Amino acid sequence: MNTTTPGLLAKQRTIARPGYSRWLMPPAALAIHLCIGMAYGFSVFWLPLSKALGIKESVVCGVDIGFVQELFVTHCDWKISTLGWMYTLFFVFLGSSAALWGGWLEHVGPRKAAVISALCWCGGMLLSALGIYLHQFWIMLLGSGVIGGIGLGLGYISPVSTLIKWFPDRRGMATGMAIMGFGGGAMIGSPLATLLMGYFATDTDVGVMQTLVVMAGIYFVFMLSGAFSYRIPAAGWKPQGWKPPVGNQAKAMMTPHHVHVKNVFKIKQFWLLWGVLCMNVSAGIGVIGMSSPMLQEVFGGQLLGIAKTYSELDKTELAAIASIAAGFTALLSLFNIGGRFFWASLSDFFGRKATFIIFFVLGGLLYISIPGSAMAGNKLLFVAAFCVILSMYGGGFATVPAYLADLFGTQMVGAIHGRLLTAWATAGILGPVIVNYMRDYQLGLGLPREQVYNQTMLILAALLMLGLVCNLLIRPVADKWFMSASELAAETRLAQEHLAEDEAEACVTAGQGDDTRPTHLLTICLAWAVVILPLSWGVYKTLINVGKFFS
Question: What integer pLDDT is reported at residue 289 of this predicted model?
Answer without folding.
Answer: 67
